Amino acid sequence: MAQKKYKREVLLRDPRFAKYQRDFLAVVLCKPEYTRAEAVRAVKAFFEKE
Question: What highest taxon heads this organism's lineage (predicted)?
């Protein structure tokens, strides 16, 4: 079964991403739609770099 995709604007308001500044999050989530797993991976890849 295909995972549900969410619009970028919905993910920018998602409470799980509230600790990230919305402007930076908007740059990281640049595609129009993501699954939740894709969004989490993209955010972690960007914000958890060393």
Answer: Bacteria
